[in-house]
Amino acid sequence: MKYLGFTLAMMLVCLVASAQNRINGIVQDAQTGELLFGANLILKGTGRGTNTDHQGKFEITNVPKGTFDLIVSFLGYETQRVSVDVPLTGELNISLAQSSLFTEEFVVYGTRATDVTPTTFQNIKKEDIAKLNLGQDIPMLLNYTPSVVSFSDAGAGVGYTGLRIRGSDQSRINVTVNGIPMNDAESHGVFWVNMPDFASSVDNMQIQRGVGTSTNGAATFGASINIQTDTRKDEAYGEIDNTFGSFNTRRHTVKAGSGLLNNRWTIDARLSQITSDGYMDRASSNLRSYFLTGGYHGENHVFKLNVFSGAEKTYQAWEGVPEALLETNRTFNLYTYDNQTDNYQQDHYQFIYTGKINQNWKANAALHYTYGRGYYEQFRQNDRLSSYGLTPVVIGETSISRMDIIRRRWLDNDFYGGVFSFNYLSHDAKWDVVLGGGANRYDGDHFGEIIWMQYAADVNIRDRYYDNVAVKDDRNVYLKGTYEAVDGLFLYGDLQYRGVDYRFDGINNDLRDISGQVSYNFFNPKFGLTYQTRTGKSWYASYAVANREPVRRDFTDSPIIDRAPQAENLQNIEAGIKASHSKYSYNVNLYYMNYNNQLVLTGQLNDVGAYVRDNVADSYRAGIEIDGAYKISPKFTLGGNLAVSRNKISEFTEYIDDYSADDFFQEEINYTDTDIAFSPNVVASAILDYKPAKGFEISLLNKYVGSQYMDNTMNDNRKLDAFWTTDLRLNYALEPRFVKNLEFTLMVYNIFNRLYEPNGYTFSYFLPGEGGTGRSLTTENFYYPMAGANFLAGVKVRF
């Protein structure tokens, strides 16, 4: 409580009184006089801003006296800088000229929600990303957004990281970059470690919670993250960004851009390297990446080529810390072999077109190719030769069936295809319709090699002890549109068809033949309405359906012929209200997510002893989310979010291994109305920003995550404790004569040195009781601890 009390005391520091000056007016099209709804206005140097309402009006209150630059921007228009003297006499009438060059924002329009889309979403701007970006992966940068829980295997945000949104893990969160799918086609996950420092090349992101709008790639089964990479920069620039901090963490980034050449061409590049020892023992990371983009920007057409790549070498910290060592050896890592590493490289190629066909039609299309390859290396002590299809090694009269082995498990894959969208906007702007879709193919080769053995056997170094190929075709088409029925009332419809063909051929790593083929055809409808009042409020409600095929392991662990897993179904209801004013903004929404045949781990084993997931008939998530911000004064802003939820499985059967008798078997235990694993009932954040002087900002960032169970039994012995953490951010930016911008950032994470674990896993089994009679239940819990108080400091120079 003393930490909580201190934090609240800092957030409720005495407020600074300010003059009640205001700036107000309208924003309109310079040529037609049309009032522009949603134009963005920023009063430079004050941290204050707003958006125009349905009538093109805006108001910024509590402005101190002085002369300020008002930056006004709107999609498809030239950004305008207006000098304003405060106090202001009269209203401003700002006219924006349409841009002579077509803008890139339409690249992601087809998969994005807009202000009139009846779903729950949040837009994150480049400036917001940059404030927190000191080299950690994107999941850590999103930690303070609503309903998000982030975690890191190495404990410091570099290396393998992940996140959950509304309790849904990364395999249920759709991720696209410029509308192109990023989820692995087989596991449905996104491995952010393969995209080191990618945030440095991101212009903006949109997070949609729930099913959201139709998109490309894996089904949105909990949330989606839609990313747009850097857009056109009209002026040439150079940038050097260096970070250093705890656990020998280093980040070095160099960026440069040509600006607009001959009023048409641009070239931009980034080169990054991140290294860290990690908080956990031997949890080191060595990450390298680059991003290169070139574009042609015409009056009605844009062509872009993006090439980016990430290469990672991380020491494995996958096993976690056993509960028995959590208090005495918190940074324990089971692995001690010096090359127990994961090694992977992924190269991406994107060719993107977006353009205006005429006044009513716009188009977007992209071709993409991703080449990934790599392996993880493991030292296996006293391993069975039979696990590799090998006969015992005979030396003299001794037959050796077990020995030390070093193996590598490889993945070599290609992912390619195309996406498209056409947008029709009627002359009166009442109809806004998008026809889009895509087709993609994944071709992955999985194989394993033994690279060293304690005793020589009849095997060569490049022999593959297992080898299988998976080919997956994914195609979809969607038609969605918004119609303004009456003034301020928008009706929304979204229909998507998605087809999946998935086939396997070969031997899996457990030496079973997994050859087989499955096909799915899904129909995903969505409907809703939005009502916008003249006072700046929006009410919305929607009903959406998503269907999702099982992931690779569901097929490989459960033979397709004997026991094919069923596809999952989600029905999602969202309803809420949102408002944005010059002084405050907020969003309040209710949600209900009803799952049919959700796949969960039950402890059940297949015929070779691997744990399989099984369908549970009925489960749901329901909750309320509140987020907002309030400008207390020109210097103080308070923001935050709160998510309170209930996440339940109606009926669930647990299977527990029983070794207490001569014959092994699994005991079944039935449960009803239990919490879904890794679904805390409360997730909250609070951020206090203080700007004591021009260019200087202090932020106090707080995160609370309620307790969560590591399995679906609701057993208090298999639980992650609730935690509250506080981070401190200091940022100072200035504009000296010799460079365009010089910025210093210091992030102190977990300033109260709290010990907490946001992720883990558990399993249980029966052993013979004392004296060989009866039996006793043993539960083993493993945790992924996060670091105590630590820091990252950065210096960014922009030329």
TrEMBL record:
Coiled coil: none
Domain TonB-dependent receptor-like beta-barrel, first and last residues per copy: 327-751
Keyword Transmembrane: yes
Signal peptide as annotated in the record: 1-19
Pfam family, one: Plug
Major subcellular site: membrane
Highest taxon listed in the record's lineage: Bacteria
Keywords in alphabetical order: Cell outer membrane, Ion transport, Iron, Iron transport, Membrane, Receptor, Signal, TonB box, Transmembrane, Transmembrane beta strand, Transport
Domain named TonB-dependent receptor plug: residues: 117-222
Topological relation to the membrane, as annotated: Multi-pass membrane protein
Record's subcellular location: Cell outer membrane
InterPro entries per UniProt: Beta-barrel_TonB, Beta-barrel_TonB_sf, CarboxyPept-like_regulatory, Plug_dom, Plug_dom_sf, TonB-dep_rcpt-like
Keyword Nucleus assigned: no
Family: Belongs to the TonB-dependent receptor family.
PANTHER family attached to this UniProt entry: FERRICHROME IRON RECEPTOR-RELATED (PTHR32552), FERRICHROME OUTER MEMBRANE TRANSPORTER_PHAGE RECEPTOR (PTHR32552:SF68)
Protein's recorded name: TonB-dependent receptor
